[in-house]
Amino acid sequence: MNKTFFLLIVITGASLAFFAYCAILINWVQDYSSGVYVRNHTEAILESGALVAYTYFGIKFFHRHVSSLR
Questions:
Q1: Distance between CA 58 and CA 39 in Å, rounded?
Q2: Which contacts of 8-16 are long-range, i.e. CB under 8 A and separated by 24 or more positions?
Q3: Between the CA atoms of 17, 59, 54 and 32, what dihedral angle is there, to the nearest 10 degrees?
Q4: Is residue 51 within 8 Å of residue 25, measured between CB atoms?
Q5: DSSP assigned state of 6
Q6: Which residue windows are transmembrane per the record (predicted)?
Q7: How far is CA 70 from CA 11, 15, 22, 60, in A?
Q8: How far is residue 13 from each of residues 1, 18, 35, 39, measured CA to CA in Å?
Q9: What distance in Å separates the CA atoms of residue 32 and residue 44, rounded to the nearest whole number?
Q10: What averages of pLDDT result for each successive group of 10 residues across the chain (70 residues)?
Q11: Torsion angle, CA of 5/7/13/14, rounded to 10 degrees?
């Protein structure tokens, strides 16, 4: 029962993180399209940097942990 509960927690956490990432990415695209980043360069740098960092570490995690399962 312990392993099943742990797996459920991991799957739920990963799903929530993925949905949050998608929401942030959609917000970034909408802000870019509407010209928010033209007026506020600090917001553009911070949000773009956060998305790039999150994507980089997600890909790095995937290659390290998921690719080794083969």
A1: 30
A2: none
A3: -100
A4: yes
A5: H
A6: 6-29
A7: 19, 22, 27, 17
A8: 18, 9, 33, 35
A9: 8
A10: 85 92 94 92 93 92 75
A11: -170
Which amino acid is it at 27?
Answer: N
CA angle 16, 21, 23 (to 5 degrees): 95
pTM > 0.85: yes or no: no
What would the two tokens of residue 67 be? Answer: 């690719």
Domain extents for the chain? 20-69
The pair of three-digit structure tokens given for residue 19, joined into one six-digit string: 């949905």
